[in-house]
Amino acid sequence: MEIETPLTEKKIKKLKAGDRIYLSGYIYTARDQAHQKLFNLLSNNKELPIDLKDAVIYYTGPAPSKPGQVIGACGPTTSYRMDKFTPILLKNGLKGMIGKGPRSKEVKKSIVENKAIYFAATGGAAALLSKTIIDSKIIAYPELKTEAIRLLKVSKFPLVVINDSYGNDLYESGQNKYNELRQSDEL
Amino acid sequence: MRKIDKEIITKEIAEAVQTANFSISEDLLAKFNQALKDEKSILGKDVLKDLIKNAKTAESEKIPICQDTGIVVIFAEIGEEVFIEGDLLEAINFGIKIGYNEGFLRKSVVKDPFDRENTGDNTPAVIYTERVPGNKLNFKVLIKGAGSENMSKINMFNPTATKEEIIKFIIDTVKNAGANACPPYILGIGIGGTFEKAALLSKKALVSDKKKNNHVKEFEQRILKEVNKTGIGPAGLGGTVTALDIKVLTYPCHIASLPVAVNINCHASRHISITI
Prior knowledge:
The complex is a heterodimer.
Chain A: E1 2-4, H1 9-13, E2 20-29, H2 32-43, E3 56-58, H3 86-91, E4 96-99, H4 105-113, E5 117-120, H5 126-130, E6 133-140, E7 149-163, H6 170-178
Chain B: E1 2-5, H1 6-22, H2 26-38, H3 42-61, E2 71-79, E3 82-85, H4 88-102, E4 126-132, E5 137-144, H5 146-149, E6 153-157, H6 163-177, E7 185-193, H7 195-205, H8 214-227, E8 243-253, E9 258-265, E10 270-275
Parallel strand pairs in B: 1-3, 2-4, 7-8
Antiparallel strand pairs in B: 2-5, 5-10, 6-9, 7-9
Helix pairs in contact in B: 1-4, 2-3
C-alpha cells in the first residue's frame, strides 16, 4: 500500500498492524538529543522549531553523505530510548513514528488515544533505505551533527505497521505466532 | 626481530574499517541465504531479502551497511619477534580517524560518558593486545553497533548450575533484546574465567576463528535450536530464524564461580581479520 504525508487521521485509520506500506512525502529525523530538546521546550510551553501537526518523525542518525549523495546510510535506531519523550509529542500533533523495536506501555496507550501510528523500517538495511531518500536538509540543531533534526523527502520508503491506532501490536502477535516455548514462557 | 613501521599499521587499519563497514563476509551472506530458505514467515522472508539486497548495495556503492558504523573494537595479536616503531595504540587510532573520514562513516564516539561531546573522528577504539609466538601482527577488527551492545548481559551462576539454566539465561537475554537489537542475531557467549574475562570472551567469540571441541560445538547447536524457538524472527516481526550463529568461548574458572556473558551482535556482523 502506498501513502503520502501529511499523515492525517483518515489515512491512519486505514492502516493495520502487519501492513507493508510505502511512504512518500516529508518526514523529520530526530533521535535522543533532539527528543530531549523538543521535550524540554514542550514541558516549558515554548515554541518548537518544527511543525508537529500530522507529522512523521524518523528515529535515525544518518552517516555523512559523500559528495553528490543526498544522504549517507540512513536506517532506524532503537525506539525505546525515545519512549519517555513520545507521549507529549503525540499530544502536540505528531502522528507517525518510524524506528525499530517495541514501545513502552505509555507510548502504546498514547498511540491509541491520539490516533497515531508506529512503523518499523528494517534495522540494518541502511544502504537500501538511503536510496529512497530524495532530499535532505538540516532544519534545527545543526550542532547535534548526526543527531540534528533533518527534513527528508522520501519516495516509497518501505515500512511495516507495528502499532496501529486500534491497539494492535505486530511484535506481540507476530512473535506469539511462532513462539514454540510458550508453556515455559513468562511473557 | 622484525620491525614494523607504525605508518603501515595506520594504513591497514584505515582500509580495514572501511572494508568492514561496506561489506559483510561470504560466510554471513551464505547464512542470510540459508535463513531465507528456512524462515517460515512471509514478513520475515521479506526482511531477509532486504538484508541481502542491502549487503549488495552497500558493497557495490561503498555505502555503510548500517548507519551505526559503531565503535571499533580491536583484538591485536603481536608476535614476540615483532618490534613496532612508534606507539601501537596511537597508530591504530590514527588509522580509524583516517578511515572514518575517508569512508564518510558516522562518528559515534563521545569523549566522556556524562558530558557526551563527540570526539569527531570515532576514536578511541577499544583495543586489547596479546603477545603471541611468531613475527606477525594480527588485528581482528570489529565494528560494534550500540543497538545490540545495549542488550548484552552477564550473569554469575553457581558452579552447580546446569546447562539448562545457562540456556534459559541466554534465551531470556535474547527475549529481552527482542526486536530491538536487529535480529537475526549472532551471539557471542563467554563461559568461565572471572566477571570481566567472561565478558571479554563473549566479545572475542564474535570474531574468533579458534577451533572448538565437540562438546562446545554441540552446546552451540543446542543453544541455536532453542533461540530459534522464541519466535522473534527477522527484525522481530515474528518468525523461525532468530539467530544465525552461536559462538561460545570458554576458560577455566574458580571452584565457586560460573560466569556467563552474552554479547549480542546484530545481523550486520561486521568484522575483518588483517595480518601484517
